[in-house]
Amino acid sequence: MRVNEHPILNFGERKKIEFTFNGKKMFGYEGDTVAAALVDNGIMEFSKSVIHERPRGFYCAIGNCGSCNMTVNGIENVKTCLTLLESGMVVENDSDEVVVIND
Amino acid sequence: MIEKDLVIVGGGPAGLSAAKVASEAGMEVALFERSFQLGGQLVKQTHKFFGSQSQYAKTRGIEIARILIEEIKNESVEVFLSATVVGLYKDNIITVYQGNKYFKVKAKAIVIATGASEKFLAFENNDLPGIYGAGAVQTLMNIHGVLPGKEVVMVGSGNIGLIVSYQLIQAGVKVKALIEASSKIGGYMVHASKLKRLGVDIITSSTVKRAVGDRKLEKIITVKLDDKWQEIPGSEEEIICDALCISVGLSPMHQLLSMGEANMLYVNELGGLVPIKTCDYETSLNNVFACGDVTGIEEASSAMVEGKIAGLMAAKHSGYIHPDYDSLETSLNNQLCVLRQGPCGEKIRCGLKKVGEERV
């Protein structure tokens, strides 16, 4: 869901960017982070807690919390809130492997 | 290994200001920023700042960020973006992680300006997707133009909670309620009044008891608190919402300084663990300086002034005297005194006294 009208900010016309999330085709806009584009596409579950596998959403947006870490273009533990979306990006969070966050 | 006169960790208001002054003094500066852009949290502040003209009062945060970034463009500052400083060592070496590569940088002096992170609140199911830091929501809507939900509840009535609530309304989101555990609103009345005029219910002496939802937030249960901060049984109420913003304060990002074994002190008034520092902003580590929110939670206005002082002092300690050293030192310290005067500055004055900063 995007901001329609804003009294101060103007997001202007931005280029549409295609990417995939867990194999599904999605769209974001130039200047989006991967995390912002996913929230816009209605994705709420970003990662799972390691032991109990509780769903974790987007939380801090500035690279502190680790909740948004995903596999991007095959690289694990990428902070999607600090990663700009690029055309053709492959974003995944459905890997079965337990990934230890040590970033 | 890269060698520089000065390394600055953090490209927010403090780090950018330090970079400007230190490079004016003749230093070759390397500035490291974890994000893909400079400006720190200013880049999402759409409101106009208070303070005086020297800290860009009446200017929107997003504009201040542009000014600060523009100011270092002509200076000898090398900027490293998407570069996380992961290590601080006693021989003035830092280690950096950038683009899946890891490298070392050695400097004559280091300025730590890492800022702060948002505090969290303990309640049942507080990890449900849909529960965000208030700052995260600000990033989402003001930088990316993406909305966190349709109906939001804000927790915490400090200035961030009040301002972000107002900005949510500006972006077209319904703010169903603002909940505050204390019996009084924490932030400035000017912000709270704006919200009240827009019909936002500010509920004091109340907190979140639990979040409810199947894999994502659907509603919250609030509970009233008595004057001893204890829950009042039977006072639970339900609020339907698809997003909850937590705005219960910030804590300094002390990790690098702690790792470098700087002398640290837990000071409640400053938001958490902060470095002990001299009047020259030097920590207990030789030639490692610190400024901005990492030394105590304040406003961006004071972070900018502190950054300039840290830049001035880091230069002096390495043998670079700024051409306007004397006038700058006096004027910057005066600016800080003004920013911290009056009842609103009492908490920070009290906190700074505990870390031995006597000049305030």
User: How many domains make up the coordinates of chain A?
Assistant: 1
What gap, in angstroms, lies between the N and C termini of chain A?
Answer: 30 Å
Name of the CATH architecture of chain A: Roll
Rg result of chain A: 14 Å
What is the CATH superfamily classification of the largest domain in chain B?
FAD/NAD(P)-binding domain
- Rg of chain B over CA atoms, rounded to whole Å, is 21 Å
CATH class of chain A: Alpha Beta
* Shape descriptor of chain B: globular
Beta-strand proportion of chain B: 25-35%
Q: Any low-confidence stretches of chain A, pLDDT <50, length ≥5?
A: none
Order of strands, main sheet of chain A, comes to: 2-1-7-5-6
The major pleated sheet of chain B works out as: 7 strands, mixed
Provide the fold topology.
The complex is a heterodimer of chains A (103) and B (360).
Chain A: E1 16-21, E2 24-29, H1 34-40, E3 47-48, E4 55-56, E5 69-72, E6 75-79, E7 90-92
Parallel strand pairs in A: 1-7
Antiparallel strand pairs in A: 1-2, 3-4, 5-6, 5-7
Chain B: E1 2-9, H1 13-24, E2 29-32, H2 61-73, E3 77-80, E4 83-89, E5 93-98, E6 101-112, E7 116-118, E8 131-133, H3 134-142, E9 151-155, H4 159-170, E10 174-179, H5 189-197, E11 202-203, E12 206-212, E13 219-224, E14 237-240, E15 243-246, E16 250-252, H6 255-259, E17 264-267, E18 272-275, E19 288-290, H7 300-317, H8 325-339, H9 346-354
Parallel strand pairs in B: 1-2, 1-6, 2-3, 6-19, 8-15, 9-10, 9-15, 10-11
Antiparallel strand pairs in B: 4-5, 5-6, 7-16, 12-13, 13-14, 17-18
Helix pairs in contact in B: 1-2, 1-7, 3-4, 4-5, 7-8
